[in-house]
Amino acid sequence: MFRLVPSYELAPRHFREHPVWAVHTRPDEIERIVGWGVDRGALMAELGRALETGDDYVYPVLEPDPLPERQMLFIRASFTSPEGLAWQGYLMGADPDCIGLFAGEEVVLFNRRLPALATRSLRSLRKSRPDLEGALFPLEYSSAFRSGAGQPIRGRFELPGPGS
User: Fold this and answer.
1) How many helices (H) and strands (E) does the chain have?
2) What is the DSSP letter of 7?
3) Model pLDDT, residue 39
4) Contact 106/128 with Cβ under 8 angstroms?
5) Nearest to residue 14, comparing CAs of 80, 76, 85?
6) Which tens digits make up the pLDDT trace of 101-152?
């Protein structure tokens, strides 16, 4: 089912429904979405409601192979800590500066550009995972998807400085 979701509401349940979500930013996305079989009138009505709020909205990418290029994507991924602990979560893009790890139905964010927030995020994550005793980073990640260039989406996510 196609629907717009405010980006701040994106949660694990959304990724169980659809593994890839995109931020709506450009009018030319409408033709691609309609090409997936989404009713144009219903889509325009949803977009109209979204524009009234001023919030950023995301939508499910119904045909994620290949992934759209030049677009902000949230991509479901698996993560493994140096101790071998596993999480599900998402990448913000194929080469992410930010990731979200699922802690129950919550999302715990880590952002390379905002390393000072890592201490609070790590504290929150440890509450949901008491077995996380050592370092969280570097996290290895992998996704079932390929980048727009056809490369597997996998790698290592690290944060600068303390917080790991």
Assistant:
1) 4, 9
2) G
3) 95
4) yes
5) 76
6) 999 999 999 999 998 888 899 999 999 988 998 889 999 999 999 887 888 9
Q: In the predicted model, is pLDDT for residue 50 greater than 50?
A: yes
Contact 83, 133 (CB under 8 A): yes
Beta bridge partners of 98: 111
Cα dihedral sign, 43-46-51-56: negative
Angstrom distance (rounded) from CA 120 to CA 141: 22
Distance between CA atoms of residues 19 and 64, nearest Å: 8
Q: Please tell me the distance from the alpha carbon of residue 45 to that of residue 122, in angstroms, as a whole number.
A: 40
Report domain extents, the chain: 5-60, 79-157
Both structure tokens of 95: 């080469």
Q: Which of 127, 94, 90 is nearest to 14 (CA)?
A: 90
**pLDDT per residue over 22-40, tens digit each?**
998 888 889 999 999 999 9
Query: Shortest CA distance to 107 belongs to which of 139, 81, 74?
Result: 74
3 state SS for 92-108:
ECCCCCEEEEEECCEEE
Can you tell me the distance from the alpha carbon of 51 to that of 55, in angstroms, rounded to the nearest whole number? 7
Tokens (6 digits) for 84? 């071998």
